[in-house]
Structures are given as C-alpha cells and as structure tokens.
Amino acid sequence: MRVAVVAESFLPQVNGVANSVRHLVDQLVARGHEALIIAPGPGETTYGSIPVVRVRSFPFPIYRDLPLGLPDASVRRAITEFAPDVVHLASPIVVGMSGLRAAERLGIPTVAIYQTDIVGFGHQYGLVGIDRTVWAWTRRLYSRAGRTLAPSSAAAAQLSAIRVPRVHLWQRGVDLRQFRPSRRSPALRASLAPNGEVLVGYVGRVAMEKRVHLLRHLADLPGTRLVIVGDGPELEEVRRLAPSSVSLGMLHGAELAAAVASLDVFVHTGAHETFCQAAQEALASGVPVVAPGAGGLLDLVTPGETGFLFDPAESAVGVAELRAGVQTLAENPVLRRAMGQAARMSVLERGWERIIDQLVNVHYRAVMRPAASRDTVAA
C-alpha cells in the first residue's frame, strides 16, 4: 500500500503531531508499505528512506519556532506524482486542507486524524471569540474526509457535537519496549533525590496551553521534588515559580524513557488534550498519573486504580484536588506500587504495532472500498 501523509508538523519540530507521524511511517515501512510525508518546512527532505516534501510556511506568531504551513501547489504535485492508495491527513488545518482538496480532485480516498483542540489552545492564550470560526472550519474540513479518527471519547464527542460525520475512535499507540518500568535508573534517582525525595514529574512542552503555571502548587509538598522534562517558552517562568524544581531539558530515546520511569508520580496540567501521549508513556513506564479530568485523560486514567483526576477548572477546588492526589501518592509507597503495576497493565494492548494494524486493516481499507459499500455510521 502507498500512503501519502500530509502533516501540519514534522521533524525537526517535537510535538504530538510530529511524533505520531514518525511512529506511523516507521510502522508502515516496517510492514512493507511505501510512504511519503508532506509537511511545512524548513527541515530535512528525507526521513530514513522516506521522502519528505517541504511546503511553504511562516513562523507561527505564538511560537516563533513552529512553522505554520501555507496553501501550496507542491502538495498536489507531490500527491499526483506519488499516486498513493490513501491520503492520511495528520491533524489537518491549512496544509491538510490542501492535501484534502488534491485528493478529492485525484479521486484518492482520505483519512483525517483529529489531534489538536484549536479552540482550547486559543483560550489559553486569551483568543476569545474564535470558537464559531474555528469549529466551522473544523466541520467543513473533516466532513469532507472519507473517515475521521478521534484519539479519545472526548474528542469524538467534540466532533459529533459539531456534526462531523463518519467519526471513529482510534487511539494512539505507545512504544512498550522503550517505555517500561525496567528503565528506572537508580543513578538518575540518586542525583535527583539525594535525600530520598519522592520524584513528581511533568513531561512535555513547557508552554501556556499546558497550564504549567499550576506546577507551582506542588513545589512545597514535603518530602517531594518537582522534576520538569521538556522545554518551551514558559520554562523560565516555571523555574521562577518553583525554584526548588529541577529541569532536565528536552530528552529523547533511552534518556527520556529512563527519566519517565524514574519518576514516582507523573503530573499533567493541560486541560485541552485530545489524547495526552506523555501520560500514556508514564503509564507504560509503571508510573501513576495525576491529571485533569478532561479530554483524552478521561480515557487514560482510571481514578483510584492508575492515578487520580482533578477538577480541570482553574479554581481553588481544582488546585486542592491536584495537591491532594499528588500528596496521597507521595505519602503512600504501597499505593504507588500498586497503581504503577495497574498503570502498566492498562496499556499493554496499545503497542504501536497493534494500533497501526488497526489503522491499515480497518480504517484505510474502509475508505478504499467502493463508495457504495462504505459505512457512514460512527463505530
């Protein structure tokens, strides 16, 4: 099978969309399929054996280091020349719409992946009044795709609420070999917790939309140390708010896996996650999760079994529940171990191999069938 992946972001950017595309094409090639990536530049024009077509872009005003793709005739040329069996639209916005239009003109079936809550993102930056426009664009784009895949029940409900048809649930996979409890590093723990502190960690982009300012409420919990893994525009502010915290910066591969597995409690603060891959990687590493009861985290965390959920509102109640969840785990090593074991068990059926097989054998095959035989009801 030949798959053209049109993505709103790809390497060298490090974010949920880019990482998901990387895992997708790795798995496709490993199964003998052919892939093409089309993404905003600048960047490398190959990824391993896979060609990467770079389209025009400009720096996103909020993130100057994040290129925002522009409509580009090269999208249609690349798809025409590659002649794919299916076009995979990864979190489509602008470049994705170009890919969708090109596929329509060429009669190529499409699958669209809903991954970014743009409205929620905008609200964190004070962009009021954008809801109607953004949801109208979202409905227009995804309604034209052969099938839309949502990563969580909450994301599927969002799309159904704005009347997007043919919505199906397709969760993201996790690398179960990389993220596992055995990656826990006594040496790293000794350096981070020289006095035996409980390590409470945040992993991800350190940015306003993740509400990382809430981490300050954990900085004074007795017997704990706050660890931040990642980078972003709010890192210095978090350091100011939580001066006793330690920052490990952006990590990858084995270093990232060791850092996650070496935590005692994983904390996420963002309330607009359509999935939250960082939380799933923590679960795979055997680390209980404390996170907002919203979005994709509702599917990932089972309260009282694999972690705790707190009120997602930025209120006294939400802050109190965040602190209580972390403190309960920090004070009870037996509970932490039990939840950590349950956390690992909860994701054992979500390896990337199984997830990509489902994508190819169920979702791609469905849109590639003759139009008269395609289902139109969400499953």
UniProtKB/TrEMBL annotation:
> Where in the numbering of this chain does the Glycosyl transferase family domain appear?
191-344
**Where would I find the Glycosyltransferase subfamily 4-like N-terminal domain in this sequence?**
14-177
Query: What EC designation does it have?
Result: 2.4.-.-
Tell me the superkingdom of the source. Answer: Bacteria
One MF annotation (Gene Ontology) recorded for this entry: glycosyltransferase activity
Protein source organism: Tenggerimyces flavus
Keywords attached to this Swiss-Prot or TrEMBL record, sorted alphabetically, are:
Glycosyltransferase, Transferase
The protein's name is Glycosyltransferase family 4 protein
Does Calcium count among this protein's keywords? no
Coiled coil feature spans: none
